Amino acid sequence: MGVRCPVPPPPPPPRFRSRGGGVGRGRPQHTADPGAGAAAKGKCALGAPLPCPPAAPSGPPSMREERGGVSPAPAQKEPGPRGSDLPRRPAVSAQGGGAGRPWPPTCIRGPPPVSVPPGAMAASPVLGLAAFLCLSVPRASCLVRFRRPVQVALLEPQGRDCSHIWAGSPGAPSGVYTVQPAGAATPFQVLCDMHPDGGWTVIQSRDWGRGRPLDFERCWQEYKQGFGDLRGDHWLGLQHISDLTSQPGLRAELRVDLLDVDNRTLHAHYNHFHVDGEAQFYRLTLGLYSGNAGDAFRGSGHTDNQEGCGFSTLDRDHDRCSPCTDGAQTFSSCSHDRSGSGWWYSDCGHADLNGPWPEREGAMSGMRWAAGDQQPTLSSSVLRLRTTAPREA
């Protein structure tokens, strides 16, 4: 059992000066790449890492998601109207031509919860008194967590990935399996989609129709480790995706399945999907495109092409632009100043399936897949990968 004592509210966000000289309030400024500038237009910029400890969870245990890792068990969520629990984002400020985005979350996190081991209250009077005082305050301001840690590293892997499991058991049902890709340090759990053609590992899933949406406005560490519920909305984790696509002697393919608000289905397929390791900022490789959704990852020009870009989050800027532009507005980071989510951004590109949900029903979704004249308003997305042995030339 862990006890989180109440902490004072965070200080107000610092004031910053926009590019046009105006002063506004917004997120603390991230650290951009020292070499970013005009030369960054020809290649993906690589930024310096900033620490971002994972957030402490909040909310009642029945609705709490696992921060800093993907929860293997389905969360019990209360049904409700779409968007009813969504926070309201203030209007975007554009003072002096700059684009401020006064919207949380920042990557400044509160202290971790206090852990009180069994018998500690009797063994240590000081710790016992501190825990007593914390537990004596009203429940609304003192969070007591009851969490059973999932010992994934102790589980026996059932295969390298979902493709490997399917090859050994073609009749295996879809569900949560434990895998350990070749070269991965420890096993982890994934959702395997065994139909229609089997062996697909789900790496991202979002569906507005599930009720309370999962927040994808996260920092680097959470995107690296993964978050959400494997049987619902979730992001598997960049390190797991890199491990799955970096297995010796195997090639991965990516399938993107989309549903728009008119119940129209779209899909995109890339035949050589690869995500590099953290040292390369989880740089993206795609391969050849096919499908009916359009190749939004590559867009219509060189600056739109998101292939070869590193992954960007609120606290790490690896996009291609410095400054970035959207019409007459200029800003410094696609993730920090525009979407708030993590993705492989160029300038900023036409694909972003981790973008924010609309503030209310009927508003435009922040999930983007725009290719040519096709710019659907999306209500769900699923990203799946599958590994195969490369064909002989």
Automatic annotation (TrEMBL):
Biological processes, Gene Ontology terms: negative regulation of T cell activation; regulation of immune response
Cited Gene3D superfamilies: Gamma Fibrinogen, chain A, domain 1
Biased composition (Low complexity): 32-49
One Gene Ontology cellular component annotation held by this UniProt entry: extracellular space
Highest rank taxon of the organism: Eukaryota
Matching InterPro entries: Fibrinogen-like_C, Fibrinogen_a/b/g_C_1, Fibrinogen_a/b/g_C_dom, Fibrinogen_C-term_domain, Fibrinogen_CS
Keyword Cell membrane carried by entry: no
Keyword Disulfide bond applies: yes
Coiled coil: none
Stretches with biased composition (Pro residues): 1-15, 50-60, 102-111
CDD domains: FReD (cd00087)
Residues spanning the membrane: none
Region feature (Disordered): 1-111, 372-393
Domain Fibrinogen C-terminal stretches: 153-389
Keyword terms, alphabetized: Disulfide bond
The protein's name in its UniProt record: Fibrinogen C-terminal domain-containing protein
Lineage: Eukaryota, Metazoa, Chordata, Craniata, Vertebrata
